[in-house]
Specification:
Blueprint: H1 7-32, H2 43-97, H3 104-124, E1 128-129, E2 132-133, E3 140-143, E4 150-153, H4 161-167, H5 174-227, H6 231-262
Helix pairs in contact: 1-6, 2-3, 2-5, 3-4, 4-5
Length: 268
């Protein structure tokens, strides 16, 4: 027996250090809810989860873009519904003006309303959405997925010749009313096509939104498998390390007592 070196105590101290580190690591996982506390826990997992998290963030941003694009098209269509009603009323006024039993004075009254409706269409043509023109020939571009795919929405132009011919027409005479009616019918046909185009954009945006929702859900689940701690499993590991830590502490105390027994062999 020797007293200059207590190898048993050194071994127990090393074991205590290891169990304390494992206990602290397990506690950190349980308290953070993450399986990866430090990069060395799973270097590959860290790299993969970072890429997944970045993709999820991009998908969330793209979803915001899609929501804004949907709001843009919904606003467009809301205005065009009213323009459609306006054109219908203007065509009705043109027909009334063609009535041979009406006097020019009567047509003047129809013309007053016709002018106000024309002004309304002109006013709608200048409307904006967050400083972006709603009704111009310019294409509105948006990004609709996490990879940066562009989606171009061609402009619905209320300042095109088809519409300005109507807003610049008159029904003050039967001849003018005949010409105006023809222009209005052409504009109604154009408007129907414009609304159909907007409807197609809305359908595409709805599909993009659904796809982004699925992407976010799937990659969140995949990232969770890599990063999130299994509480049941880690709780078991924590209990095991806690018991080992207590046992090692007790054995270290016993090992520190061993040299004292040597004193009994020394002469009194």
């Amino acid at each position: 027996m020797i007293i200059s070196s207590n190898l048993a105590a050194q071994s127990a101290a090393n074991d205590l250090s290891n169990t304390s580190a494992a206990l602290a690591k397990s506690l950190a996982k349980l308290s953070s809810g993450s399986r990866i506390v430090n990069a060395y826990d799973d270097a590959a997992g860290v790299a993969i989860s970072l890429r997944f998290d970045a993709k999820i963030e991009r998908a969330n941003a793209a979803r915001d873009n899609v929501a804004n694009a949907m709001s843009f098209t919904n606003t467009q269509d809301g205005y065009l519904k009213r323009v459609a009603k306006t054109l219908n009323r203007m065509s009705e006024l043109a027909m009334l003006s063609l009535d041979g039993t009406k006097s020019d004075g009567d047509r003047t009254l129809y013309q007053n309303e016709f002018t106000q409706l024309s002004n309304y269409i002109t006013n709608v043509g200048g409307k904006e959405f967050n400083s972006v023109s709603l009704f111009s020939a310019s294409t509105v571009e948006s990004v609709i997925d996490s990879e940066g795919t562009s989606f171009n929405m061609t402009g619905v132009n209320l300042t095109s010749t088809t519409y300005t011919t109507v807003t610049g027409s008159s029904i003050a005479t039967t001849g003018a009313a005949t010409t105006a009616l023809s222009s209005i019918r052409t504009a109604i046909t154009q408007l129907a096509g414009d609304r159909a185009t907007i409807g197609a954009f809305q359908s595409r945006l709805n599909m993009a939104n659904d796809q982004l929702a699925a992407t976010i859900e799937n990659f969140t689940a995949a990232s969770s498998v890599i990063k999130d701690v299994d509480v049941a499993r880690e709780s078991t590991e924590f209990s095991r390390q806690n018991i080992l830590n207590q046992s090692t502490t007790a054995m270290l105390a016993q090992a520190n007592q061993l040299p004292q027994s040597v004193l009994r062999l020394l002469p009194q």
